[in-house]
Amino acid sequence: MNRIIYLIAACALCLSSCDKFLDIMPDNRTEIDSAKKMRALLVSAYPETDYMLITEYISDDVDDYGPTNPNTDRFLDQVFGWEWIKESDNEDVEMLWGNSYLAIAAANQVLFGIEQLATDEDKEKGLTLVEIAEKNGLTGEMAEALLCRAYNHFVLVNIFSLQYNQITSDKDLGITYMEGPEKGLNPKYERNSVKEVYEKIDADLQNALPYVTDEYFTVPKYHFNKAAAYAFAARFYLFYEKWEESVKYADLCLGSEPTALLRDWADQAKMTQDPDIITEHYISSDVKANLLLLTAYSKMGLCFGAYNYYSKYSHGNYQATNEDAGALAKLFKTEMGSFYKMSPKVYSATNLDKVIFWKLPYLFEETDPVAQIGYYRSVYPAMTGDMVLLERAEAKILLKRYEEAAEDLNIWLNNIAKKSYTLTPESINDLFKDMPYHEWNVGNPKKKLNPAFDIQPDLQENMLHFTLLLKKIEGLGVGQRWFDIKRYGIEVVRREMGADGNPLKKGDVLTVDDPRRAVQIPVKVVDAGYQKNPR
């Protein structure tokens, strides 16, 4: 196994995906010298541990339903409390770190295999990786490997580092950007700055995007197909504060008819309202909205499903009513249940207060039928047409292209709401201009924004508030909200909810400049000598 897993990931434990990886991972005698071998190896370039549980529970999507609700464990307590996560779990930071670098190692091995095809004449001419791939008819494989490498580093840097910004990111600690197989017996790994990591992701994307293809995939939705690649680029450049580039790639992803890539909520509402049926449809590769599907060892189908699991920390009725799903309905003076084509599901019982959209399935991989043990699994859409549309609207607002942004917001809204709405920048501004800012015990969707980049008060700010509200709803239960909290410097206040379901007690506060916004590096990685995040 690659040394990076021991020295960077420090995974002395057996990763749940390790056996599969070793089955196909080449040793140093195997040549990855054909398209068939490269495609087989690229299956391992997608991570098998999701970030969703961590990012969902460190965000403001959940509240503490009190000491009388026992449905938690020490691992989840550490996540919710923004602590250094030291407890083991299939979705802990060590698994995320290790599986991400395993995926990167697989991508790098493919790229190394392409480079090894260079002849002496090619080397004399100084052919680049792209030129070698072109010469050998391997541009599709090269593009997928570069995209996987970029994506895994993108996830790592946006969880374990502070948010990219043009002011401090040249000094902020990023993560190690791995660009080739490990060399030497005891290599030492330094952390690139956040800026350097973003520059390297940018370079990988620019080399990959002209060559991305759908041609050789059996099931394109489980690979970086063209639409997924453009969706990733749109998100990356949004985070990179390159708004024009974000719009450019969102346009390439969505095409001239963005509605064709949106989820059909009305169709889902017509189905038998059973969580298994709805969630299996939600992650179907036949759904055009699902641009990139990933599999994971994940409990998220339980946590944000029709189950009383991990319910001490939940997205409850108070938050739904005042801060996201219900708040959107109230803006248009209607009830939550009558607003959505497929309404959020409300669960209320002893020690249970949960309001969710059915999204991710709960799957179970049985490893021992006699003992009835195995792994929680799920499938999740890492990229969707709906989120690309909202990210394009956000980029347009930051470019002050307000009319165009309003058109995108109308498309998203009319796709999910039962009635038809025609919003203008002025009417969106009116929804928020007199709304007070959110307080921990008086919730509403207008939370103070403190990004590193400049935003103007009134129209621009209020259009951003509306867009972030829609994104919070779209990303609920799939871990997307955390990234907007980081990018916009949104303060998060932990609150304990009372027996009546309302805020009872103020807890810890994640301030704008809190270093805990960069999740701490896994314990074993730090113990192996890797530099930890400041605290």
Distance between the termini: 33 Å
Query: Main β-sheet, in a few words?
Result: 3 strands, antiparallel
| Uncertain runs | 1-7, 9-29
Number of strands: 9
> Which range best describes the helical content: under 10%, 10-25%, 25-40%, 40-55%, 55-70% or over 70%?
40-55%
Structural class by SSE content: mainly alpha
Binned strand content: 5-15%
In one word, what is the shape?
Answer: globular
Would you mind describing this structure in some detail?
The chain is mainly alpha-helical and about 525 residues long. A three-stranded antiparallel β-sheet has the order 2-7-6. The protein contains 24 helices and nine strands. The two termini are about 35 Å apart.
Topology of this structure?
Blueprint: H1 3-7, H2 18-24, H3 35-42, H4 52-57, E1 63-64, H5 74-80, H6 93-115, H7 120-125, H8 129-135, H9 139-160, H10 194-208, H11 226-239, H12 243-254, H13 265-270, H14 275-282, E2 290-296, H15 300-303, E3 313-314, H16 317-323, H17 325-331, H18 336-339, E4 345-349, E5 352-356, E6 363-368, E7 373-384, H19 385-398, H20 402-416, H21 425-432, H22 459-475, H23 481-487, E8 492-497, E9 503-510, H24 523-527
Antiparallel strand pairs: 1-3, 2-7, 4-5, 6-7, 8-9
Helix pairs in contact: 3-9, 6-9, 9-10, 11-12, 11-19, 12-19, 16-17, 19-20, 19-22, 20-22, 21-22
